[in-house]
Amino acid sequence: MYALLLAVGVFGVFAFQLDVRVRNEFEGRRFALPARIYARPLELHAGVRITQADVVDELRELGYGDAPREGESGWFRVDGNAVEIAARPFVFWDGAEPARRLRAVFDGPQVSRLTDAEGKDLALARLEPLPIGGIYPAGNEDRVLVRLSEVPKHLIEELIATEDRKFYDHMGFDPRALARAATSVFSGRMQGGSTITQQLVKNFFLTPERTLSRKFTELVMAILLEAHYGKAEILETYLNEIYLGQDRDRAIHGVGLAAQYYFGKDVQHLTVAESALLVAMVKGPAVYDPRRHAARALERRNLVLRETKDQGSITMEQYAAARAADLGVSPRPSMGTSPYPAFVQLVHRQLRRDYDEKDLRSEGLRIFSTLDPRAQLSAERALAKRIAQYDKERRFGQPGLEGAVVMTDPSSGEVQALVGGRDARYRGYNRAIDAARPVGSLLKPAVYLTALSEPSRYTLITPIDDGPFLWKSRGAPDWEPKNYDRKFHGLVPLRVALAQSYNAATARLGTDVGLDKVLATVKKLGVERELRPFASTLLGATEMSPLEVAQMYQTVAAGGFRSPLRAIREVTTQEGKPLQRYALKVEQAFPAEPMVLITAALQGVVREGTAQGLKAFLPPEVAAAGKTGTTDEQRDAWFAGFTGDRLGVVWLGYDDNRAARLSGAAAALPVWGDIMAALMPQPLALAAAEGIEQVWIDPQTNLRGDSQCAGAVELPFMLGSAPPERSPCVSVAGAVIDTVDNSVKKAKSWWERIFGR
Amino acid sequence: MGTHLRALALLFLLVACAAQEPAPSPAPVEQPPVAVPATKENVAIAGLMDSARADAAAGRLPSAAASLERALRIEPRNPRLWHELARVRLQQADYAQAESLAARSNSYAGADSALRAENQRLVEQARAAQR
């Protein structure tokens, strides 16, 4: 008697421990959801610059079908120069965007009109954002959580008919199956007979073990589970938990994700045949993988269908139709945990500053990122294409040439695209954020900006001496920079020294204004890394990642307003409740005037300097600003530049630091040009600043000219810093009248250029 | 054996019932304010600006800021939008941002002296509040 009580007591403790565990696991499983990362949503409104083809591409990426399905959302129809869209609903941080019909009419590369189905004008519509990856729990399990009510009835019936016919009647186990299993223990062969509940419990263990004690523990846990939870809850968890395949490093769990992965649709829309295929795979997703072993998968699917028909759960007609259907698996390429691993890595790093790793992997957070899929694809394509071309031309052997690209929105600092290497799908070394490479001439704008901040000493036309230069300092070897063309050019205007990227002139200018001041400028531009206080730093003998370079140029592109580069806009809970905003932050790091001057000088680099090659990619009206960079022995080729609405940084080189024999102008610039050309960038208009005047300069004399002088350029000057003398090229007779008249006209045209169309 | 197990199951059932907790209910979803159609050239911007103003007036400052940032992504060179965002930051007592954003507004204000004056007043308010 006591022995019996003791046995019950011991078992009671064991059972209690298991009970706690079962409930923890079950609750935990139900909510262990990876953080889901979304691209920026596409905003549609009259006037937005996007082509019809790009909108169609984005809709296809979102899984929208290209034929109308009445009563449903998630499809589009191309109708001449218009696209009709049945947009799905989506809950954003600032509210829900309803399911609705949209009609966008295109006029060239722009939406000319946006209306609803009745033809009423709509001000603005936001499409749902593209999911671009997640931050997954250990084992990279992915999930799309579904509610039982969303799962088609036939899927559940097929599952029960195949896996556990007595599911609704048993208490967690099937005594007859158990008895069979028990005899099989004695015959030495452990085998099946698991109910759905038992299969679910089995998933709570990380290792598949087939011992008697494990079997017993599972059995008790299954009974406990049934005691705590209803059949519906157990079934729902099972449907979300069941392992249904492997996509590279990503484990496919649950029917919601499997429906997406195999058929490219939501689980609600699965047909009888499609859901039967998923049920068929429960037994072994690798063995019955429909993409690898189609015949085997088909055979088992038809078995599932027959069993379901035999149970009377589907009609003879349904059975016949489903049996005749082909597998219907979409040809979707394998993506792994994200098609954009480099960008997702950046998002993950920025999130880790504010969130626990555990919460990121289990709370189902929704992360709204800044990724612009169009910019990303352009960057990936351009980099891959050019690297393949250079590899072929040079044949420098393995490992091949590498590269990285960062694209941002210059006004907000949002990162729009990130490519971490030649294989954009590869999850590994992310050169865009982790490679530190000498930046070479990319640092020069900081030298010139420092000089131009002193208008009493320097303007865009101040003569700078590009003669031989020798720098001696204690504790460092003598420094004698050479020019790229191995020549010296004597006195040149400041803007030409930058446009031609003359090293001797820049070294002289930098040491004249003061190395410490230049380093302070670099810091103010947003570079947090400490640069070595050596004169050679002036010519970029200092290492940065492409992302750091982008930060530096972002401040220039934003007219001296520094915004930290961001990859995240908002974080919400799974239900859409806002948790955190990553707000736009700006800080004025420089006054407006010197920024106008340096931007004009960088436009000069493209117009008449080392980046003239961009003429082959962009029309001159874009007036892009940029800078080439090439390091010693051409180990690194860089280009950094911006237009009115995009900023990009491109790096090329070898991981092992071999000489690439590629220059910034010849190799990095074409990548940048390809990317920008595909994105139809907005022109870069110089900002207006109170302390700036535009003056025509005669390049022969570097004195005031007018538009009639040969080769005259209009340049910005800080008030009072432009040369007072007139060049002889100005016709003396008309000079006075002409100046007044012209300045009015000039002011107007300049005004129109900035604000008019 | 059957009765034995059933008894055990009953035992667990008792343990279980005592420890059951209510499931968390999902949070209600906030509806966006209705955008009032405007007569300005870019109706998308006007709509966002109106809803930002309504949000700001009702004290929903984060929503107001979100609408303005959304508008700025469409028209980054619109000085009025930068000014409105500066105003929201001022209301949020983020004085440093208010000042920077007003300066940003000025950088696009061109000859709009009324807006420049508004920005100037805003900067002074931000500085006064910090003293």
Write a concise synopsis of the structure shown:
The complex is a heterodimer of chains A (757) and B (131). By secondary structure, chain A is an alpha+beta fold. Helices cover 38% and strands 18% of the residues of chain A.
Descriptive report:
- The complex is a heterodimer of chains A (757) and B (131).
- In chain A, strand 24 (568-572) and strand 25 form a beta hairpin.
- The longest helix of chain A has 30 residues, at 2-31.
- Chain A has 757 residues and is an alpha+beta fold.
- In chain A, the strands form 11 sheets. A 5-stranded mixed sheet of chain A has the order 10-1-14-24-25. In chain A, strands 16-15-29-28-27 form a 5-stranded antiparallel sheet, with helices on both faces. In chain A, strands 3-4-7-8 form a 4-stranded antiparallel sheet, with helices on one face.
- In chain A, 38% of the residues lie in helices and 18% in strands.
- Chain B has 131 residues and is mainly α.
- Chain B has helices at 2-19, 43-57, 61-74, 79-91, 95-109, 113-130.
- In chain B, helix 2 packs antiparallel against helix 3.
- Chain B is globular, with a radius of gyration of 27 Å.
- Chain B starts with a helix and ends with a helix.
- The relative contact order of chain B is 0.09.
- Chains A and B meet through helix 1, helix 6, strand 26 and helix 23 of A and helix 1, helix 2, helix 3 and helix 5 of B.
Helical coverage of chain A, percent range: 25-40%
Structural class based on helices, strands and sheet pairing of chain A: alpha+beta
Category from helices, strands and their pairing of chain B: mainly alpha
- Please provide the count of β strands of chain B: 0
Contiguous runs where pLDDT drops below 50 for at least 5 residues of chain A? 733-757
Largest sheet of chain B: none
CA-atom Rg of chain A in angstroms: 33 Å
Distance between the termini of chain A: 97 Å
Give the overall average pLDDT of chain B: 78
Largest interface: A-B, 52 and 47 residues
- Report low-confidence residues of chain B grouped into runs of 5 or more: 1-5, 7-40
Measure the end-to-end span of chain B: 82 Å
Task: Please outline the major beta sheet of chain A.
Answer: 5 strands, mixed
Mean pLDDT of chain A: 88
Question: Looking at the structure, what is the overall shape of chain A?
Answer: elongated
**Strand proportion of chain B:** under 5%
**Contiguous helical run count of chain B:** 6
